Amino acid sequence: MQKSIERIAGDSEGVFYEFPAFHFTGADKAAPSAYLQSALHAGELPGVVAIDALMPALNRAEAEGRIRGNITVVPWANPIGRAQYHFGEHQGRFHLGTRTNFNRAFPLLAAPDAALLPDTTFGTADQQLKTRLLQLSIGHDIVLDLHCDDEGLAYLYVHTSLWPAMADCAAAMGIDAVVLWSEDSAGTFEGATIMPYQNVPADVAKFERRVATTVEYRGMLDVDGELAASDAEGLYRLLVARGVIADPALAAPGPFTGFVAPLENIDMMPAPRAGAVLYDVKPSDRVSKGARLATIVHTPGEAGGRTEVMAPQDGVILTRRSRRIIRAGEDLLKLVGDKKSADARSGTLED
């Protein structure tokens, strides 16, 4: 294993940000390669501890000569967000300088060619970071971007061009659900990873061996040793199943048993009033149309001080907010409906 230190210049003199990247060299140039990163939203830590738990297995595989394809691992992909605190609260989702989501505004390239990346000589720190992360990931057959939601199931975002070919990956990782998408106008990291392959020849796209996904490892508070070990085992199984690592002792993953739905089926359920949220449902619950999902207590102690929120269709609760104070118009949860949502959103679901 080789370790490199990636350095990003800050937006003022004397300020720099650094993050490590670990590189494992494969023995077979024809084998699939893999890139794993976590904490692009710097406060989302389940992926960080999963990678920490995975590294000993990668080191063993290297020592035993079982790494077939190149592997690059970036355990904490966002040193800028990691350093951001405002009034004592960590702020790792948006760059405080540009007010841009760290998982938006990645360059969407016409082809998977690092030469097409923008010159960031005079770019802001977050622009430099995004370009560097793409440079590290371009050319890999497998690209995993590890995130988490507020409270939720373990699920993947997968481009329609990669499904159902990626079902083995979802099964290997023990994922509960897959959300399929087809459009990215916001420039997410996943979009910047897969969109360049959409209009290139099939022998370049190689969709049969390509993996690109945002992995949502449950919720913000699911930073736990047992979960980390389980997630690390899932990542290892994926790398073995796709031929990046050789491990004849490991059985092939079985069929994927979770549920799959298009992004257009998700109801985000904007809060009708501001106040305190009383949830009636939790992630994994199956609900029927008209069932009460939550109650907003907006004028406590007064007649009519509560507003109920009902399910617009049958479906499964994928996620809900971890905090219980909400503003009017903020999304309460993700309900994966059996049908297309009346509030269907293309592209990203939230900022």
TrEMBL record:
GO-annotated molecular function: hydrolase activity, acting on ester bonds; metal ion binding
Assigned keywords, A-Z: Hydrolase, Metal-binding, Zinc
Pfam family for this entry, one: AstE_AspA_cat
Domain Succinylglutamate desuccinylase/Aspartoacylase catalytic: 31-193
InterPro entries assigned: AstE_AspA_cat, N-alpha-Ac-DABA_deacetylase
Entry cofactors: Zn(2+)
Record has tRNA processing as a keyword: no
Gene3D superfamilies according to UniProt: Zn peptidases (3.40.630.10)
Name listed for the protein in its UniProt record: Succinylglutamate desuccinylase/aspartoacylase family protein
